[in-house]
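Anyone opening a protein record will find just a pair of labelled lines. With that in mind, the following record should read easily:
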Amino acid sequence: MVKNPLRRPAEVLRTETAESVRDEYSVQVSAPPEQLWDMVSDITRMGRFSPENRAGWWLKPSAAPAVNAWFIGFNRIGPVIWATPCRVTALDPGRHFEFKVSLVGTVWGYYLDPAEDGGVMITEYREWPRSAFLHRVLRWSGPFGRPRDFLALNGLHRSLQRIKETTEG
């Protein structure tokens, strides 16, 4: 359980380059890969697991996950509510789902890999372009000036822990 939302969870790995910052968190889950794939690729139900996302709507009602499909993500932290247009950028059914938030260029995604001793290793990641302006916006755009970066990092951890708890009971 995450105790301090102002500190990066130790389990969240950060990789920084001159162009971008990438954070990722992995957890092993004892559940069928198909069940986990449905959970991470269904943007209409992601709000069940994410502490920030509340729901998603495909822009075409009959849409399903497909590269270049657009959806709107509805998010909330405390009293702050916002919507983000997103585009699916990678899709390998049963293995990899990724989308890009169009306004800021942040990429969010999931990898599902077989675990060595059974089950599935799920990795959730976020990668955002490094720019002075974007870094300041992402860092301090949380409710009431709280560090947005730390809220998102804790969200990586909490989302996957909720998926694990849901599937393993």
Notes: Residues 1-5 have pLDDT under 50 and may be disordered. The first strand starts at residue 13 and ends at 16. The beta strands are 13-16, 20-29, 53-58, 70-77, 80-92, 96-101, 107-114, 120-129.
